[in-house]
Amino acid sequence: MLCIVDSTIDPYWNLAAEEYLLTALSEPVFRLWRNAPSVIVGRYQNAAAEINSEYVRTRGIPVVRRLTGGGAVFHDLGNVNYTFIDRKVEGEDTAAMFRRFTAPVISALRSLGVEASLEGRNDLVISGRKFSGNAVCVHGGRVLQHGTLLFCASVADLSGALNTRPEKFIGKSVQSNRSRVTNISEHLPSRHRSMSVEEFITYLQDHIAGGTDTLRGYTAQEMAAINRLRREKYSTWQWNYGNSPRYGLNQTRRFPWGFLEVSLDVSGGLIRSCSIRGDYFFTRPTEDVEQALTGLPHSHDAVLTTLSALPLTDYFGPATADELAELFF
């Protein structure tokens, strides 16, 4: 089994590397990696519905879509991600895959004195509190299963970055289940209480992959292929947002100058229809604004740029583009 411990913390690159290792190699792989603060959404999720748009935008937190299914997760440098890639066992269902690939992680944690266990379909928990979400996909007879390991992650950022108001979105995309979370570091016995996240990574490498004997980096050719995937797929708006299933958004808000209700129909990441209703004073028909927004990417930058170019006081009174743009997310 090849062991790869990545030093890059670029989420676009790391997700591109996952695809490359699954599709281009034939050997079994165990990989440890971390991301800078980012939200990683499942393959079939509506990215806009899973995030707190204002929180991630104002903090510059990227949103990246992965290959595997399941729900949205928050990554930061206090979270360690692990990946197993191996051949698919004939007749093995996803539940069996989760049991197979989480077993070494559970064993490693129990050797540290942490009573971890698999709960439900794909969560690892300590005393009923989740510290790891896992996801899987199959390609060409090979299985990729990866998961988070919250070691000393920012629970405040985790809670802030993920959407807590899914009711404003209407659609058939996979929605995340929010669970009570905990950090592994909080459950370490006293003899390991001072362990850093870097030491935790080394421990996992030694316990699961047998030390440095199988440690492997990337060739120049592999780096080029991963960089190409990053550039052409994982860092693109089309992959991360445009691939979201069709959805609707309904938002209402009261401003000092009136009340607005916005309804959007979004497909392929584009605003297909836009309805603005409410109690406000105007000198131009609101349909002008609806038409200007229809066909735009459902992104904050696109909406804000378009609104900023319109004479908004004619449509809504003393409204600003910044406050109106928030209503569309």
UniProtKB/TrEMBL annotation:
Top-down, what is the taxonomic lineage of the species of origin? Bacteria, Pseudomonadati, Bacteroidota, Bacteroidia, Bacteroidales
Question: Any idea what this protein is called?
Answer: lipoate--protein ligase
**Matching Gene3D superfamilies:** Bira Bifunctional Protein, Domain 2, CO dehydrogenase flavoprotein, C-terminal domain
NCBIfam families associated with the record: lipoyltrans
Q: Which GO terms describe its biological process?
A: protein lipoylation
What domain of life is recorded for the organism? Bacteria
What EC designation does it have?
A: 6.3.1.20
**Which top EC class is given?**
ligase
- Which reactions appear under catalytic activity for this entry? L-lysyl-[lipoyl-carrier protein] + (R)-lipoate + ATP = N(6)-[(R)-lipoyl]-L-lysyl-[lipoyl-carrier protein] + AMP + diphosphate + H(+)
Entry keyword set: ATP-binding, Ligase, Nucleotide-binding
Question: What cellular-component terms does GO give this entry?
Answer: cytoplasm
Q: Does the keyword Translocase apply?
A: no
InterPro entries the record matches: aa-tRNA-synth_II/BPL/LPL, BPL_LPL_catalytic, Lipoate_protein_ligase_C, LipoylTrfase_LipoateP_Ligase
Q: What GO molecular function annotations does the UniProt record carry, in alphabetical order?
A: ATP binding; lipoate-protein ligase activity; lipoyltransferase activity
